[in-house]
Amino acid sequence: MLISKNENFVLPQGWSKCCLPDFTNIVMGQSPTSDTYNKNRNGIPFFQGKAEFGAIYPTVVKYCSAPNKIAFAGATLLSVRAPVGPTNLAKEKCCIGRGLAAIHPADGISSMFVLLLLRSIETDISKEGTGSTFSAINKQFVEELEFGLPPLPEQHRIVAKIEELFSELDKGIENLKTAQAQLKVYRQALLKHAFEGKLTAQWREQNRDQLETAAALQMRIQQERAQRYQQQLAEWESKSPSVPLLQRGKATSVVTPLTVPHFEKGGLGGISKPKTPKPLPPLTAEELAELPALPEGWGWVRPQDICSPKPYSIGIGPFGSNLKVSDYRKSGVPLIFVKNITRSNFFLDLKYIDEIKYRELVPHSVNALDLLITKMGDPPGDCEIYPARAPNAVLTADCLKFRLWEKFANRTLYKFCINSNFVKRQLGLITKGVAQKKISVERFKTVCLPFFSVEEQQVLVQEIEAKLSEVDQLDQTISTSLQQAEALRQSILKKAFSGKLVPQDPHDEPASELLARIKAERATVAAKPRKNPTSDKLSPVEIAPSPMSKES
């Protein structure tokens, strides 16, 4: 129990108030020179901070041939820099960098006892870090931590009881995480069945004669695109004032259109002529052979087949030269980052650009209900719908926009489709790059998507949402249970180190006598001449770590 955080704490029978140095030896880490790091097992394991921590023991990633500060087997490794508080046990002699402190228990005190004691106050000390660049605590802070120390036999009873309870708790947590993983598998199995036509097979059979085939629907889309093009072209041609144009050094009066759309640059007068819609070539026999079989009446399309007829319906964020950190503002038009898509939160840590910059980046703009896709990752292709009432925004470089023609393609359905493993595998295969792999617009346009009647699309969305709602509820229940399990773990630790987990035994030697003996033993050792006076390489006798066998 951290007494400094609980002034009303009454020490149980036989316990003593003390600070960490009274029953441990503290060694603060110090990073060796970088030329001594290696991965060739030259020297001893080297740990820099929390990054190498595991459940109990750290994972060896690198070694050090000339360590400055050493921790011995059985020392509790305490993270003292970014983040503050996490702990692990040193499994062997190792070098520690400035992100760690090594807490060596005095002779007789269990290494696991010290580890669990510090884990019981992790939340408390995590709040105490200071520093302008990152959070950290110093040696003085660690040395001034006050505890209630139980008698040595009670320490062993505490460790045994915690390990017993934690073993049961860990089994429960393992089962919960297994169930959580199974839900992820079920989600993908559900989407697989959905886009193989299995979820709506019965409905489709019941409505067989009333459904438009994918081929007929695609023909209707092409016809409507052609009609829209003729309307846009007629409007473009109808507005044609004369403007001077320098041609071979002479001013000439020419006809220049002024519409469609106002922000699209190029062409005479700064306005582009509408582009003729080009029907995409059908999938080849070789391409179809690589795709799974679809139900009768379904077909395959590419994104360009079902995107909105409006300009810039498929696009990516601007290159870094077009959008820089110096363009960011505290208000204005929001920017969309990968984290907003993966976390399904478009109001997370917002950054903005001003209206002037927005007008430059309109081809990269995002409108309400656009599908937004991550174009990098392992695999890429996390997809989310930009909220209905959200303001217009702009993509950043690692995001892709897919604006569907909602009259023919249900955006919710295709969000599920892009998030399915079938499409993610396709996206993974077309992710290219040297320094960083990404999806280009042109490669995204080659993806194959199942396509079928609008009516069946709506029914399938309802089926998927109903089943995923049940999965989400189970997932939330599991997440809540995992949180409760971690809360229970902390509750067990708090009880243990406040004297409420195991009974006190009046026959136990009081902790005060244990502390007195440790002090006397240290005085005896200090009086003996040291063969190696360097403080960074104290011998096991001088710091008296308990053997690892006491934890096994």
Give an account of the 3D structure.
With 552 residues, this protein is of the alpha+beta class. It has 16 helices and 23 strands. It has helices at 111-119, 122-126, 139-143, 152-194, 201-206, 214-238, 285-289, 303-306, 338-342, 355-360, 411-418, 421-429, 441-444, 454-496, 511-527, 540-543, and strands at 16-19, 24-28, 37-38, 44-47, 62-64, 70-71, 76-80, 84-89, 94-96, 100-105, 146-149, 242-247, 250-255, 299-301, 314-316, 333-336, 352-353, 365-366, 371-374, 383-385, 393-395, 399-402, 449-451. It has a 5-stranded mixed sheet, with no helix packed on it. Helix 4 (152-194) runs antiparallel to helix 14 (454-496). The two termini are 24 Å apart. The model is unreliable at 242-270 and 533-552 (pLDDT under 50).
